Amino acid sequence: MTSSADDMPPPWQSMWRCCKLGFKFEPKLMSVAFGLSLLAALPDALLALWLKFLSDGVLDGNRRLVYISLMGLAVSAVGTWFLRTVADRVQRRFRDRVTIALEAHVARLQASVGTIAHHERPDYLDRLSILRDQVFVLDHMYLSVFSTAGWIVRLVITVGLLTSIHPALALLVLFAVPTVMTSSWRPAVERKIEEAGASAARLARHLFVLSTTAPPGKEVRVTRIGSRLVSMRRSAWERWYQPIAAARWGTAWWHSLAWLVFGLGYVGAIVFVAVGINATPGSVLLVLAAGSRLSAYIGATVGEIGFLRGFWMDGSRRLAWLEDYAASFDEAADIAVPSTLASGIRFENVSFAYPGTTALVLQDVSLTLPAGAVIAVVGENGAGKSTLVKLLSKFYSPTSGRILVDGADLGRMPADEWRARLSGAYQDFFRFEFFARQSVGVGDVPRLDSVPAVSAAVDRAGAADVVSSLESGLDTQLGPSWPGGVEVSFGQWQKLALARGFMRDEPLLLVLDEPTAALDAETEHALFERYASAARSSSGRITLLVSHRFSTVRMADLIVVLDGSRVAEVGSHEELMAKGGQYAELYAIQAAAYQ
Q1: How many CB atoms lie within 10 A of CB 61?
Q2: How far apart are CA 428 and CA 444, in angstroms?
Q3: Counting C-beta atoms within 10 Å of the first and last residue's C-beta, which end of the chain has fewer, N or C?
């Protein structure tokens, strides 16, 4: 999948999809809000007609026509105010409710995507960064649609009034065409340039966070890079803003020229009515009032269309793209995940390059992970260990080759069902600042609040000392930024993350990707010695351990050595030591360091 703007759905189609989404979330409120927008257009648009009747009635001495016009003016004034007030209240409620629904929709979509490419690819990060900013104001798109419909109703009525004086006055609409074109064109130009500099804008936000938040605070002060961060942020912001400012100036000149064309047409229409056809004073007054309102209505209409064409439509395109992107995964998922493993998992000539790149991180990997075995993966940094884990977790699919689970293609298994039978702890674990019980319990959501299940996972992870050190045990709020919250060390966070990975009792695959890097070697060894013994007694479960500590690795039934994106060696500790290859060399170097 490419990442250019061309791979996003068409603009108007995206906006229509977004409108249908709003109707799905709030059908009654959306219908009432739209109806009020149309109704509120009527009294305002008829104002020019009442002024004509008033003029004609005064000049002709027709009191009945004067009273009718005065009544119409009063109804228009009161009706416009009343309908606008009611519409604002209804639209505000609709906006509040649909915003919550849209935010939840975007969060659900991102969480449901079968891959994590959108979290790691810079081009997708830029696109999603803009969507995250826009989703909080995407509700304005609906109001813009409502307003545009209302302004169009006003335009139709106003043009009808003008043509009632003379059909040639309809040509005034043609003089408005340039304003419509420039209003539709300029936001798209500006948004294209803004997106081209999105990475610079994201860098500016990142540098602002570094300068103003607590986690990097100590290092910012010790290294004294605060002023440099400010300077870098300013430079990044200028790289983003300067092209946008230049584009805005350029499009503003063309837009001004378009309005000059309409102004000339408006003046010509007044001269034509007053001199060319010798119309009545009432008709001239109607043209003056309707013509001036026509310019205001056209300005409002093209302004709303500009918003729709630019900001709001761009937001709906990104939302539609995310919907399509999320739906594109597991399209061929027609194989059920097995309940137990009989033979194990096999890599068949698997190669992988991250999306948007051509460098192979794994190359022609053929490997068998036997059912019921504890398997360790070792290798230098960049050898492909974490990538292997990502493929097994179905975060990515192989570029070529395939992964078989008991002979069935993993690529044809639903990602959600596979991950429901997967458990793990990763080196880049997240700090869930919930209550300690929930921070561990999210590892198995159905048992999130089960104290016995959480306590068992804590014991398996050797994290009982962490929980006992907390003032309220499992009911302690983690994170000092929350009321009553406490700070815990990196090592304690890592133990809680490991406990989270142990929440599921019978996973088919347990992945442990450098999960105890913050623990000392002796603690790690004791922990995995106890766990490996229990793992081998389970029914078919595969345990995959990625670690740099060979004192732990040697406990594995099978050790896989990766080197330069390829499998260099496979075997038990004794077999690999007897072979005297790369593993034996690495083991000897690390053993010597402990002597």
Answers
A1: 8
A2: 19
A3: C
